[in-house]
Amino acid sequence: MTEDKNLESPEQGIKKPSLLNQLIPYLITAGIFIYLYWEIDFKKMFHLLAEANLSWFIPAMIFMTVAFALIDSFTFGQAYSWFNARLSAYEKIEMRTAPYVIQAILSPLAEVMFVLYLWRKKGIHPAHALSSSIWTIVNDFASVATALTIAVVYNLKTALVPEIGTPWLIVLSIWWVLYLANLIFWHSPLNPIMANWIERSHQAGLDQQGIRRIILRIAGTLIQLLKTFSIARWYHYLWVYFIRLFMVLSAVISNYAALRALGLNPPLPLMVIAIPIIFYGHFLPINVGGYGGPQALAILFFYEIGKCGDKEQVAAYSFLWSTGFLLGRFLWGAIFIRGFMKNTFPEGFKNWRRTQK
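The structure assignment produced for this chain is given below.
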C-alpha cells in the first residue's frame, strides 16, 4: 500500500537531527574513553591486539557482516514491504544497508536517511515507516529475550555466574508478559476498533486552524505509530522473530571468535547474556562507530561480573570485534550508497528538502 501524498506533505516533519542530538553520542563516548584511559593500559591492549590469533575471527566476521546485512534487510525491509509499500528485494537491501556508511560516524543522521528514502521513493509517511521500525524492534527484543531467558535459567541451575540470578529472571518474565499481552491485544476483537481509530486519527486536525490544528496533528501523528501493530498478524511476528534469532546466533558466534582470539573463554551463560547486550549497544547513543559504550559493557560483563582475564584483554576483544563490524558494514554499505543517494536526493544533497517530482 502506498501513502497518499496529497493528505499533507510529511516531508515538512522530516528534519535533520539537531546539533545536540548529533553531539550526544560523541560526548558520551568521550566520557567513556576518559574512564578507559584511567582504567586500562592502552599500550598493553594494543600489544595484545597485535598478537591476536585471527584465523577464526576473520571468517566469523565476514559471516556476521553478510548475515547482519541480509537479516536487517529482510526483517525491517520486509516490514516496510508488508505494511507500507511494496519493496523489491534489491530495494530492501539498498534502503537498509546503504546508510551503514553514514551510520558508522553519524548514527542519528542515518536514521533520518531511512525515513527520507522511503518517503521520496515510495511515498511512505514517516510515522508509518517508524511504526514498522518499532514493531520490528519489539520482535527483535523478543529474540534477544529468548536467548537471555534460556541463559539465565541455565545459569540458575548451574550457578556458573553467581551474579546473574533471580532478578534477571523476574525482569525477563515481565518483558514476556508485556510482549504476549501486546500480541493477544492486537489479535482480540478490539483490533478492528483500534485500527479504525488509528485510520481516522491520520486526518485529525486537518479541518482546524492555529494551535488546535498543531496539537491535533501531533496527536494524530503519534497515534500512527500504532498502525503496523494493528495490521500485523501472528505469522508476521513469527517470521521476524525467527529470522532475528539468527542475528543473535551470528553475533554470539562472531563475538566468541573474537574472545578466543584474545585468549578469553567465558562461561556459556555469561556469553549468551552479555554478547547480545554488548552487540545492541552498538546501536545506542553511547558510542561512535562502535567505540565507547560496547567496550564499557564488555568490561562490565566479562571482567567485573565474569572475572574473565584482565581489563586489557577484554577491551582488546571488544575493540577487535567493533572494528571488524565497523569495517564490514562500511564496505557493504559502500556497494549500495550511490543508488541510495540518487533515490533519496534526486535533485542533489543541497536540495534535500525538495520533494521528488
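Interim note for the steering committee: The chain has a mean pLDDT of 90. Residues 10-125+243-351 form one domain.
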